[in-house]
Amino acid sequence: MDFDVFFSALSHPLRLRALLLLHQEGELCVCELNHVLQVSQPMLSRHLAHLRKWGLVNDRQQGLWVYYRLSDNLPDWAAQVLANTADGVSGKSPYADDLEALAAIPDRPESACCA
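The chain above was modelled as a monomer; its predicted structure follows.
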């Protein structure tokens, strides 16, 4: 992975928040990300498509739902940058708010959020 591509991905606040959520949670449905990040679904999908194209995330479809996770091929240095960033923003807004909003979704991961 190219350093420029990775840091370009982190430079947009929405992509950074999505990557940090995926780092913390492992795998999330698009509807969960949409609920937490409070952006339009087309905007979120566009940014997730960029992350997928750049090799930072993988997706899988299960029925009607699409799930995202960090790429298995993410270089160690990139994973470490995400881990350090997550530690650095721990407890700070909007990142802590995102985790709280995710935790507030009832019955995750089988939630009605995706219904």
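The chain has one domain: 3-106.
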